[in-house]
Amino acid sequence: MDPRARIEGYGRLHRESPWLDSLPGAYGRFGCDANRALLESALAKMKAVDPNPDFIVMSGDMAAHDLVSTHDEAVRTVTNLLNATFPNTLVVPCIGNNDLTPDYEGECNSDGLANLYETWSLWIPEQQKETFHQMGAFALTPAFNPGLVFLSINTNIFSIKRHAVNTSDDCGIMNWLSDQLANAKNEKKKVYIVGHVIPGLSDYDFTPLWNPLYLDSYGALMSKYRDTVVAGFFGHIHVDEFRFVSDKQASEPLAAVTLVGPAISPVYDNNPGFHLFTYTPSSLQLLDYANYLLDLSNANLYDDAEWFLDYNFRDAYKVSQIDVESMVSVYRSFASNAALFRLYDARKNGYYDDKRGSYMCVMSCLTADEFDKCMKLNHNYA
């Protein structure tokens, strides 16, 4: 959330968004992080569709981009709003690159980790305090299901953009993750991994997001514990999609599924969204998720945040559950079904079309001067 983005939608414009969608409104605008009105509307919709969920995964970046003086305020505000909306629900947070300063801060035993623990101490078990202070990770077994373990990992340490004196020091997190997975397997428990920066490539410029050294180690762990890890819940790239984690040395290279949740923040020209998962409590197998969206342009135009159910994954892609095998079948179907892939691609950013402005100017203009005037008239980068 961005405390600078007040109710009228003004704030620091992180990215230039095209056409009239960049104009400010009650619920913010494309190119800016979420203001309070947008966040509160999302929480209200979450409460309406499921007043008492078993748990909430918060996949990082409570704070907006480039915050300095108001950074801690933003993290506390989102934490307090989430806790006030769901006071009796287990919340599993993880560190996003914007949740510490400077951006992608990845030092071990930092003051930032200690301060963040104090803010999130209502969610992180006391016995995990030392681990969180050291590496920003924690393990949690919920009271409602002792057969489940949440492992929240600090992906700032793995990021190619990590800000640290010694980027080869992983603060012990990979050994910790290995030990946690081994314990879960020995105790016949299932694991949900919660992280922020996804293992893989950026959607925007197709560059690596993780240090290759950590990527290989993570892939090997996912392969070794493929029957223990159900899925990974990640964020960072502000799109609704799924990825695979692979182990090049394994006989079955596709080892795990990474489920990337849409963002409330529309900073990367995406309509705000969130997922509501269903699962089988006995096996902890993920069955489905419903994707909810807000058409931000319409919300600002009519001053009314009408969130809506966009689709259910099982119905949309004709699978029985969410696991590696099912996701592989969806992935392979894209090769033969171009229409299905186009729909998947459109859903990624909530159907926002960043080419609309330029295309409409091309349609209505005959000369380059007219085109320039049209684009300037219908842009607002203030």
Structure overview:
- This protein is an alpha/beta fold and 382 residues long.
- Helix content is 34%, strand content 16%.
- The strands form three sheets. A six-stranded mixed sheet has the order 3-4-5-6-8-7.
- α5 packs parallel to α6, α9 packs across α10 and α11 packs across α12.
- The radius of gyration is 21 Å and the shape is globular.
- The chain starts with 35 loop residues before the first helix and ends in a 5-residue tail after the last helix.
What's the rounded overall pLDDT mean? Answer: 90
* Oligomeric state of the chains in view: single chain
Which percent band covers the strand fraction? 15-25%
Structural class: alpha/beta
Order of helices and strands: HEHEHHEEHEHEEEEEHEHHHHH
Categorize the overall geometry: globular
Alpha carbon gyration radius: 21 Å
Largest sheet: 6 strands, mixed
- Strand arrangement, largest sheet? 3-4-5-6-8-7
List low-confidence stretches.
4-20
The number of distinct β-strands equals 11
Supply the number of helical segments: 12
